[in-house]
Amino acid sequence: MTDLASATRRRLLLGGFCLCCLPGAIRRGEASPGPFASEEIAEGIHIRRGVDEDASLANRDAIANIGFIIGRDGVLVADPGGSLTDGENLRATIRQKTNLPIRFVVMSHVHPDHIFGAGAFRQDNPVFVGHARLAQALLQRGEYYRSVLATMLGSERAGPVVAPTMLVSDKTEIDLGDRLIEARAHGPAHTTCDLSLFDKKTGTLFPADLLFVRRAPSLDGGLRGWLKELAALKQRGAARAVPGHGPVSIDWPAGSTDIERYLTTLERETRQAVADSVGIEAAVRTVASSERDKWLLFDEYNGRNVTEAYRELEWQ
Amino acid sequence: MKGLQLGWALACMLLFAAAAAAQDDETARAERWKDLRQTLFGDRPVRDGAGKIALEAPERALDAALVPVAITVQNPKNVKALYLVIDDNPAPVAAHVTYGPAGDPESLKLRVRVNQYTNMRAIEETLQGELYESVRLVKAAGGCSAPAGDYDEANLADMGQMKLRPVGGPAPTEGFEAQLLIRHPNFNGMQMDPITRGYTPARFLKSIDVAYNGEKAFHLESDISLATDPAIAFRVKGPRKGKLAVDAADSANGVFKHIFDLAEQGS
Does B205 fall in a domain? Predict the structure, then answer.
């Protein structure tokens, strides 16, 4: 890249996403208003695939896999989407399928691409469900995220910061009448406030961003913790899982193979760098480079992941 | 990971669009430095240090809250102090290091926060009082004002804990290199407190004194530009056998001391 191009490039790494706003650079994930295409991956479970891009004006931050579960007594939303527009489109999609009340809106973690659509559901007066640490994480980061999204999308399109009204500190069951959905709070992993869901009726696991498929994972909680939580999730006896990014559904636990390999490689090679007294500045160039061709957006995230991993592991 | 400031905020140049336009202007950078130089050094000239001092820093920071930088000098015997200046940070002097008889200015490595596109400069002050600099433009944003990670409870519990690690690279001809890690949030006063919605009061390491076998190695004065959990790699003269004493103080009158007893190791 020339000096001029790099100087005019405006980048944003924010939560789970990185934004490149080169004028005209992004034309792919154009988001239009109204209902969007979704896939019923199991009985009553509808998922919209997020685009494998960083957030942009064109894609309205509709980059995460989001969807809903229809039960006898109502609807559960998981996750509400990456912006007010994304959330409104999700709500329109729900209304195409059912008129049942939207009772629960689950916010899987603090990153904006998953939760800034929550404002679209305030009119339904649902229970907003989150990890016990989500409330504090949103207080620390929510306004910052909002301001960045507002700059990108316009303040009326970004969406408000919506605080969770039901906090999960261990696990709890959500009853939709004919189906029970277990919500489980995890220790520091992808973030420090990861909440997963498990639909007992269909054996479908919603690990949210504890599971990335094809798109490079981003580490913002704890590397060792993430591997531990993944190992536990593999024991859940789920038939399929809905990745936070990637295909709308993947066989489980087989679908964890790639992210486990990446995180294991990241841990092993970062430990080796620490042990060999290779500094962070050199480690970011070499650690996990064998994974480069296996992930989209690898170069946007791996170096930061190495930095995070390094400072976690250098104190061990 | 608890307690570490995450680099969240990397880089929203959009937020700083207006400022960025100005910063992209070399004239504005030059003006900024002219003011800074006057403040720091008065009328003393700061000359091009090519061949004397080198600064290594990433052209684009992967994590604006932790940008690794390295300073090396060619003629350490003639250097009495080093400066690391980050022109556009709220407190530009990231480090001012003065060396004693046990210290070797040949190399110094730090991790810093970078708040926006900025010139970063390493400056050596010679025994004769001359100043030489090496300058790099670093592209990053948000490293200071970005929301911190989970810097609550667990964070302060182990504040002041220290670790000394060996440093890789070519074996020094004399002396040795080590990296000092200090657990400290280095709150810079620009991060919002989630409870009060006010800003977390600044609390940062102000000074670090390192002595080796009773002799001064260096005295480092710092400010809010050091990353959370400051890490400093430095060179010490003499065989790697003896007591390395660290005495650090923060802006809230916290004092942290540690003595590392170094056993001799093979080269």
Answer: yes
